[in-house]
Amino acid sequence: MGEHDLHPSEIAIIVPYLDGALRYMLGNAFREAGLPYYLLRRRSSPRDEPRVRAWLTWLALAHPDWQLPPSPFDVAEALTLSISGLDAARAELLTERLYQPEVPQLLPIAELPAPIESRVGTLFVGLFEEIRLWLAAQDETASIDQFLHSLFTLLSERRFQPEPDVAGAAVCDWLVQAATRLRHSAAAIGLNTPAAVGNAFIDGINQGLVTANPPELGDPPDPNGMMISTIYGYLLAGKPVRVQVWLETAATGWWDIPNQPLSNAFVLAQSYDPSQPWTMDNDFHIRNQLLSRIVRGLTARCADGVLLATSDLDRRGVRQDGPLWRALQPVR
């Protein structure tokens, strides 16, 4: 980048899909290289935010009478997000030995064998026990918003999080507001017990709640970093840049459209003749048309050039030879 006087904020990385595995790999690579970056994501369900899942896990464990036992994976994830420096492997060891999902409850650290305690570390085991005791001491009649505020106060202390958790504060604020609104409207919608309110709150989020007031999920964006975005996310909200990097250009994701036989947006359009069946030829034509528009839209937002990056095999080991890659062969 130095040779071309190119700043990271002048680069956009475009991918057809941005799943958790790809976010993890790109994030690790950029952190190791010391390059700032941020994810340009459209609003997503709160359940997609790990911190939301973690705090709902602690809420369910503090109220076993709600009969919403978290899975061992949820408990391990909550531990890694609540205790700074605790990796997934050691969190899983603690969960295997000290979590009973059938109750559900966390067991005291006296039940932990000495070799396991040595592997996990005395400090982490002590913080686990502090969370367990705190959960056991909670008043089950307290409102959800009060519980979440107290939980954030505990987990913000330096022994749990040495650095301020800005993203966690935003998630907490949204959860507290959502819980407060539910509490105020609970009687009107027939939720007359704390257990009914708690079940509605947790189930609503876990089942993919769509809210009119979505939280700012994830870490705050770095305005000086490289933008990482999906195709349509960038076309809808991305700013023009000097250089774009298109990843997975041999993948069919650049050409695919959602398989929605019962809610096909093209068939349901008022301009479509309902007497005409939707055929494979129609589908093929629309896919090519959309791909052409994607290419024109992306290149119109790029000043200097586009870098193409791909692999012969996808992450499953399947050979990739998508329409975009074939169309670009003459210009390679």
H and E string: EHEHHHEEHHHHHEHEHEH
- Give the helix tally: 12
Count of discrete structural domains: 2
Largest sheet: 5 strands, parallel
Provide the spatial order of strands within the biggest beta sheet. 2-5-1-6-7
Q: State mean pLDDT (0 to 100 scale).
A: 85
Radius of gyration: 24 Å
Question: Whole-Å distance between the termini?
Answer: 21 Å
* Shape summary: globular
Low-confidence stretches: none
Structural class designation: alpha/beta
Q: Helical proportion? A: 40-55%
Percent of residues in beta strands:
5-15%
Tally of extended strands?
7
Short description:
This protein has helices at 20-33, 50-62, 72-82, 88-98, 114-120, 122-136, 144-155, 166-185, 194-206, 231-237, 280-299, 323-328, and strands at 11-15, 37-40, 99-100, 105-106, 226-230, 241-246, 302-308. The protein has 332 residues and is α/β, with parallel strands linked by helices.
Describe this entry's structure for a reader:
It is a single chain. By secondary structure, this protein is an alpha/beta fold. It has 2 domains: 8-44 and 220-331, 3-Layer(aba) Sandwich (Rossmann fold), CATH 3.40.50.300; 46-206. Helices cover 45% and strands 9% of the residues. It contains 12 helices and 7 strands. Strands 2-5-1-6-7 form a 5-stranded parallel sheet, with helices on one face. Strands 3-4 form a two-stranded antiparallel sheet. Strand 6, helix 11 and strand 7 (302-308) form a beta-alpha-beta unit. The model has no long low-confidence stretch (mean pLDDT 85).
